[in-house]
């Protein structure tokens, strides 16, 4: 049984990856484990009551377990529960499971996504930006890393290929904005869109689940991306001469990259001060927010209800349109 198949109360069994495991103490003084388990179809909370220290040490993050538990409704959200007094799990050894079952992968067509990226690069008229993008996207090793990286650990596009999918989404939104607003420097905006999250290829790792790398946790994808782009600009100047990539091309691009989170409280060192930076920020945010809604819709059980279950990321349920039914009336 996969997580997406857990849609009602009752006994469940399946093989899951331990995503989180925390030791807690209940109001009655008895210890329990507050966990999250999952597979490539999703994740779900698991409570293990009256847990022993020995059992807790076995249920470590990153372990794959065969689990028997009970699905129960708690505050209108299904969660799993198990009792440590019972034999409810078995640790799986390497070779007893398929790693592909636990790390989700984009359902988008990778070749089509790459065609959007490459066509965008080909259409640029600003030579410094075009050459800079070639340093990244003409390199096969970089393309492999970029196409297999997630865009986040949890919040949005948290799966292999998520970074390419998210970047392409942002590029398409920026293309539309550049076509609509005549004041926009399209080459600057699209170069920023292609490079805005490039640091994420150094920020995440993991064969079973998505984990933050040391540099991702200590420095963050935004700064890592700035470092990568800065080095690429240095390489461009080394190969083509200092005049080929003037400061007037570098500073606006760097501003787009450092301000794309939009707000200081969202991790942006500065707020957007260019129209192109404003548009990049909103395109980035729009694609991320849309991904949250799309994921909630895709995970809907199809039980006939127009409402999804409560989504902890969005902090609400999502309503599903039924315009076909309305048009038939």
Q: How would you portray this structure in words?
A:
The chain has helices at residues 53-58, 110-123, 127-137, 140-148, 162-180, 186-195, 214-218, 221-240, 247-259, 275-298, 323-328, and strands spanning 10-25, 31-39, 42-49, 64-74, 77-83, 89-91, 204-205, 211-212. Strand 7 and strand 8 (211-212) form a beta hairpin. Helix content is 42%, strand content 18%. The protein is an alpha+beta fold and 329 residues long. The model has no long low-confidence stretch (mean pLDDT 90). The chain folds into 2 domains: 3-101, OB fold (Dihydrolipoamide Acetyltransferase, E2P); 110-293, Hypothetical protein af1432. It starts with 9 loop residues before the first strand and ends with a helix. The strands form 2 sheets. A 5-stranded mixed beta barrel has the order 1-2-3-5-4. A two-stranded antiparallel ribbon has the order 7-8.
List keywords for this structure.
single chain, 329 residues, alpha+beta, OB fold (Dihydrolipoamide Acetyltransferase, E2P), Hypothetical protein af1432, 2 domains, five-stranded mixed barrel, two-stranded antiparallel sheet
Question: Helicity range of the residues?
Answer: 40-55%
Report low-confidence residues grouped into runs of 5 or more: none
Report strand %.
15-25%
Backbone shape: elongated
Report strand order across the widest sheet: 1-2-3-5-4
| Text of the CATH class of the largest domain | Mainly Alpha
Specify the structural class.
alpha+beta
| Main sheet overview | 5 strands, mixed, barrel
Quote the distance from N terminus to C terminus.
Answer: 38 Å
Q: Tell me what the CATH architecture of the largest domain is.
A: Orthogonal Bundle
Total count of domains? 2
Number of E strands = 8
The helix/strand order is EEEHEEEHHHHHEEHHHHH
The helix tally amounts to 11
Average residue-wise pLDDT: 90
CATH topology-level name of the largest domain: Hypothetical protein af1432
Report Rg. 23 Å
